[in-house]
Amino acid sequence: MLDMVVNVGKARADSPFIPGALELARRERAFVTGLQVVAVYPSLLGQAEVAALIAAEERDARMRQEWWLELCRKAGVEGAWEVLRGIYVTSLAKRSQLADLLVCELPVRAPEAPAGFDELTRVLFADTSPMLLVPDTWTGTLSAQRVLIAWNGSGEAARAAKAALPLLEHATAVRVLDGTRVALPGIGPPPPPLREWLERHGIRAQWQHFEAERDTGRALLAEARGMQADLLVMGAWGRSRMSELILGGATRWMLDHASLPLLLTH
Q1: Model's pTM, two decimal places?
Q2: Hey, which of 30, 44, 126, 236 would disulfide with 264, CB 3.0 to 4.6 Å?
C-alpha cells in the first residue's frame, strides 16, 4: 500500500488537484493523509495579534477533518486528516518523510514568488519525499496514463524513476527522453541501467535520444505536449541548486511554466 500525503492547505473541495489526488489514491490503493500546515514565523510570534490569528487558523483547520474524511469516503479510499503548526518548509518536508508521495498544488497562474524562492518549491531543497506537483492551470486528471521520463543518468533522475514505479506500472504509454552523457571509461561511473530496470518491472518504454544544451526546460515541455503526456518524471536541481536559481535551469523553468503534473525528486 502506498502512503500519500496531500498538502491540502486552504484549498476548497473543488480545487482540481484534490479529486485528482483522491482518484489516484483509489487506483493505487493508497492511504491518503490530508494535511494543512499552519505557518509560523518566529520573528512575529511575540506579537499578540499574530499569535491569536495563528490559533484561530489552527482551530479552523482542525474543524475541516470531517470534510476531508467525507471526501475520502466518497472516493473509496482510507484516509486521515492532520494539522501541523510550524515553519512551513521544514514542517511539510519532515511530515512527508514517511510518505511515498507528497501531492501539492503548484501555483503557476499567480505565483507568490519565483520558483525556488517560494515556500512550496523550497520544500524541494529539504529532505522531503518525492513530490507530485499539480499546476493550478491543469484541468486533466492524475491518471498518469501517458508518462514522460526525463533521463540523464543522474542520481536525481534515478530516484525520480524509482518513485514513479507504481504509477508507471499502470501507465498505457511510457517514453524515456535519454539525454545521458557517457563518462570516459574508467574515469566516471556508468549511468544506472534504466532500460533493463524498467524491463524487469514489466514496463515497456519507448526510448528517444534527447539533446538540449539550452532551453532544456522548454524542450522537455514541448516533448511532453507532443506526446500528450499527463505526467513528467524528472530529477530536480541536477546542477548546483544555487546556480539553477541564479542562472536558471530545467528545474526552475519547469516549475515556472509547468502545464502538466510533475513528479520530482532531488
Answers
A1: 0.90
A2: 236
